[in-house]
Amino acid sequence: MGGPSVKPYQPINVWESVAMKGSNTRHYKPDSGSKLYRRSLYTFWKRTAPHPSMEILNAPSREVSCVRREQTNTPLQAFVVMNDPQFVESSRQLAAHALLNCKEKPTILQFIAARLLNRELTTREIEIVNQTLDFSYAKFKAAPRQSHSAHLSRRIQSTSRTRPSSTCGLDTHRQPNPQYG
To answer: Model-level pTM?
Structure first.
């Protein structure tokens, strides 16, 4: 444990409205390269403007300790998970990793479930995921140019062995939101 804090993606000019003119943290510049992918335990956090995604996902305040986090599920949280560049990149990398390690759709789904849920999917869950996945594949196969564009717009470079329509179908995300730096 330890080391410098990560400065993840945040909306452009997020700190400008709460910073004093002479502040050394007035202009937020996200990290790049390997620095960007440290654990969020080390996220650089401005007291007057906490990281927006952490705030929306109910990160506890830092004034007191927190034994158990509250559980919520709001449309705004779903929006963040579907559009925040950190989540988009993570899902894209997970999809690429699953495709490189598994050949058949059932094993791909269980591979992803093992990493996200630490368990296998139930029969009913597999049915639901298959329907969603089939819908996503059909959507991206119908518009291969859009699929390729979404694939290339991601900040993490893909491996040459994954097809854009495959990872776009598996991660079911759109392009990262341009409001993030």
So the answer is: 0.70
